[in-house]
Amino acid sequence: MRTVVLTMKASVIEMFLVLLVTGVHSNKETSKKIKRPKFTVPQINCDVKAGKIINPEFIVKCPAGCQDPKFHVYGTDVYASYSSVCGAAVHSGVLDNSGGKILVRKVAGLSGYKGSYSNGVQSLSLPRWRESFIVLESKPKKGVTYPSALTYSSSKSPAAQAGETTKAYQRPPIPATTAQPVTLMQLLAVTVAVATPTILPRPSPSAASTTSIRRPEPVGHRSQEMDLWSTTTYTSSQNRPGADPGIQRQDPSGAAFEKPVRADVSLGEMDSWKPGSVLLDEGRVPKEELSTQSLEPVSLGDPNCKIDLSFLIDGSTSIGKRRFRIQKQLLAGVAQALDIGPAGPLMGVVQYGDNPATHFNLKTHMNSRDLKIAIEKITQRGGLSNVGRAISFVTKNFFSKANGNRSSAPNVVVVMVDGWPTDKVEEASRLARESGINIFFITIEGAAENEKQYVVEPNFANKAVCRTNGFYSFHVQSWFGLHKTLQPLVKRVCDTDRLACSKTCLNSADIGFVIDGSSSVGTGNFRTVLQFVTNLTKEFEISDTDTRVGAVQYTYEQRLEFGFDQYSSKPDILNAIKRVGYWSGGTSTGAAINFALEQLFKKSKPNKRKLMILITDGRSYDDVRIPAMAAHLKGVITYAIGVAWAAQEELEVIATHPARDHSFFVDEFDNLYQYVPRIIQNICTEFNSQPRN
């Protein structure tokens, strides 16, 4: 009997060993057959927004050219999902403008996104958005499978244009298990499990809210869930203007989430966020087009008031804290009334005392809300009231491209003075005007009769402002009446047609070159004359709204080489000058002046200064007196440059009075270049000497 038992045990053990070996061998065979599918990186266009993509984490390839400002980006380092994915990648520095692969990870929405300028992209500020994302280098995590085809919230997606396979959003299926060999112990375990009742856990209320499908609401209806949306991540205190951005607030899972003041965000802080709770909180995939107005991006600014504005505020000790606070209230009111934005007005603040200091420049705050908060935080510096030094500082430092200055926007400075300055402003203001800056002055509680002896520079406001016609000056009798200047000030700074100092000697002229192409000049000297014309042209700001250039060549006859409206950029003008061919013939200067008046200056714009620059190498065969007088009567300022055999007395007749400032004689063509600086200086001196009333 014992022998039989031992034999049965041996058989059972042998069977177990056979099954075990068979299972191991089968596992190896199965693993050999399973091949990891090849991962292809989906490609998207520059205009694809992160909010359109359902996937919580994905790798994509961006094309070149996403630095273009038409692809809007909101935020810094952590971006609102309303942003262009590829534009945000360029802004963050992960990509350059040539494109490439990136890793995108969705994170929780924030109550505020800060705009900034980085890597050639200007990102905008945004009060809040329901979902965010961060951009990383395309280094996939081990064990993480990234989608080869992205899931979009709409079947019509921009990615389809890039040749990418897209699919409509579906509930993710339950992952299937791979078939494994069944062992005897597994069979025994299954047998035991059949006799044991299964108890399922009760779903939590939060889980039910994210998985249940709600009936869609009408587009215009705001449901209770939507009303509570803004508090799913933060408490309602986030809506207070003075809310501390560093306060920790609770998300629905109970984990503390700290709003980043700057861009340094730890990825670990975002781990508790689940995309489904945001994307499916209304039982359907949300669309930005159906969002309520409060979720839309902030205004891009009023395009009818596109100015670059600097406020020079008085921080001197004598002003006191109360009046300094009233001054800040006016600034906040202006910021609100102007509708600050990248397509409209931009505003910075400089405070002066002993020395000026910039609180923030033009690109620091890109909307009225952020600007008002920043103004509230300004503290008084104290010291004297050195306004002249402050104006010089702004002229040299503030209006630069690095500080956000835009070449297409007029530069405006509003100076606020309590009483009177403690230094002189006349010379500093003159340099500012010549730089194209429109200066406004607000003088509060000016010097009383017995105080005028202490004023360093009498009539300082009229010496400082752009024009003395009253448009640029405000005299306020009391600080308590300062608020009354708000609306008139905003109206005036936005009236760009009346900002006279935006015009400078280099950006406000129609310049017509009248070039002698007679036989005595010769081919080589003619090229030297064209180089002289090129050197003069390079000094001006060329565009269809700035200085324009035209040219006429003459012998016995006349030829229009190109008119004022033919080219609108400096490179195009310079290339056109190079292409002018030498004509050869006689010298009829009088007829050439008449031709230029008719073919060039008759088409000059009314608000442009008309400058004729005539170059000749000899005496004219016809009379020049009557044509020259006609040019003067039509307001054409004429400069006459004679070379070699030109008649000095004839040059003085052609030139505008006084002839010593408008006529020049050069003995050789090769010396023409020496007169370029002097001619430019005379043009600007004459322009800046115009009366300011």
From TrEMBL:
<dbReference type="GO" id="GO:0005614">
    <property type="term" value="C:interstitial matrix"/>
</dbReference>
<feature type="compositionally biased region" description="Polar residues">
    <location>
        <begin position="150"/>
        <end position="168"/>
    </location>
</feature>
<dbReference type="GO" id="GO:0021510">
    <property type="term" value="P:spinal cord development"/>
</dbReference>
<keyword id="KW-1015">Disulfide bond</keyword>
<comment type="function">
    <text>Promotes matrix assembly and cell adhesiveness. Plays a role in spinal cord formation by regulating the proliferation and differentiation of neural stem cells.</text>
</comment>
<dbReference type="Pfam" id="PF00092">
    <property type="entry name" value="VWA"/>
</dbReference>
<protein>
    <recommendedName>
        <fullName>Vitrin</fullName>
    </recommendedName>
</protein>
<keyword id="KW-0677">Repeat</keyword>
<comment type="subunit">
    <text>Binds dermatan sulfate and chondroitin sulfate.</text>
</comment>
<dbReference type="InterPro" id="IPR036609">
    <property type="entry name" value="LCCL_sf"/>
</dbReference>
<keyword id="KW-0732">Signal</keyword>
<feature type="domain" description="VWFA">
    <location>
        <begin position="510"/>
        <end position="683"/>
    </location>
</feature>
<feature type="domain" description="LCCL">
    <location>
        <begin position="40"/>
        <end position="133"/>
    </location>
</feature>
<dbReference type="InterPro" id="IPR004043">
    <property type="entry name" value="LCCL"/>
</dbReference>
<dbReference type="InterPro" id="IPR036465">
    <property type="entry name" value="vWFA_dom_sf"/>
</dbReference>
<dbReference type="GO" id="GO:0030198">
    <property type="term" value="P:extracellular matrix organization"/>
</dbReference>
<dbReference type="InterPro" id="IPR050525">
    <property type="entry name" value="ECM_Assembly_Org"/>
</dbReference>
<keyword id="KW-0325">Glycoprotein</keyword>
<keyword id="KW-0272">Extracellular matrix</keyword>
<feature type="domain" description="VWFA">
    <location>
        <begin position="308"/>
        <end position="493"/>
    </location>
</feature>
<feature type="signal peptide">
    <location>
        <begin position="1"/>
        <end position="26"/>
    </location>
</feature>
<dbReference type="InterPro" id="IPR002035">
    <property type="entry name" value="VWF_A"/>
</dbReference>
<dbReference type="GO" id="GO:0005539">
    <property type="term" value="F:glycosaminoglycan binding"/>
</dbReference>
<dbReference type="Pfam" id="PF03815">
    <property type="entry name" value="LCCL"/>
</dbReference>
<keyword id="KW-0964">Secreted</keyword>
<feature type="region of interest" description="Disordered">
    <location>
        <begin position="150"/>
        <end position="174"/>
    </location>
</feature>
<feature type="region of interest" description="Disordered">
    <location>
        <begin position="199"/>
        <end position="256"/>
    </location>
</feature>
<feature type="compositionally biased region" description="Basic and acidic residues">
    <location>
        <begin position="214"/>
        <end position="225"/>
    </location>
</feature>
<keyword id="KW-0524">Neurogenesis</keyword>
<dbReference type="GO" id="GO:0010811">
    <property type="term" value="P:positive regulation of cell-substrate adhesion"/>
</dbReference>
<feature type="compositionally biased region" description="Polar residues">
    <location>
        <begin position="229"/>
        <end position="240"/>
    </location>
</feature>
